[in-house]
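User: Second chain of the day. Same drill as before.
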Amino acid sequence: PGDRSKPACLLIHGFTASPKEMRQLGEFLNQHGYTCLGIRLTGHGTVPDDMVRSRYTDWIASVEDGYHLLRGVADRIFIIGLSMGGILSLLMSTRLKVEGVAALSTPYGLPRDYPIWLLNIVGVFKKFVPKGKGKPGSGWFDQDAYRQQVSYPQNPVRSTAELKKLILEMRAALPKVTAPVLLMHSRDDKYILPENMEKIYAALIHAKERTKLTIAGSGHVVTRDAARQQVFESVLEFIQRVGGNG
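Assistant: Same format as last time:
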């Protein structure tokens, strides 16, 4: 826990990953006096079959549970999410009272955009598919950080259909977002291209304020890759500016 007079931070990891993805950012913010909670989304951080059984509504419920836990220790809450965590952050800011949103490496769409019905059919016969075309870890600049990453090795096909549903929910919600928003993306992200940030930014027509930052020297997982310190400091600066120090 941090100082009750300051806002608290809810941290949400990405698709197939675990809370470890957000841990260093949470520790950094906590050193500056902010109470932080890194949640584990349903079906993550255990075994891949648990994820196959999870629905996108379960992930929404995980965020709601974490939010209400934090409301017990702070009156004001920032939501900070990476990738699918960014999707959830933006969506849930229209359903919960939040001080601001930091959405990092967030998709507006998926690289291989198969229809939901097809993914559900394929998922019956083929549970898992590779994460990308390249060698695992090839998109990372910090190979030590990649080796320590806790994530399922492949993408569950059924879960990709759920992620697509979540993206559609987020797209519908973006014009309703009123909280201040910080968007960050690496220009070197080969998994979710930086143009995704531009599309999200353009759709945030009613946000109190919107800021977009492009970084370099990092892959998709900007909270753990080589440029992470720049990410931490930018998120802190956003929270201090929008939420004040007390």
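DSSP finds nine helices and eight strands in the chain.

User: Great, on to the next one.
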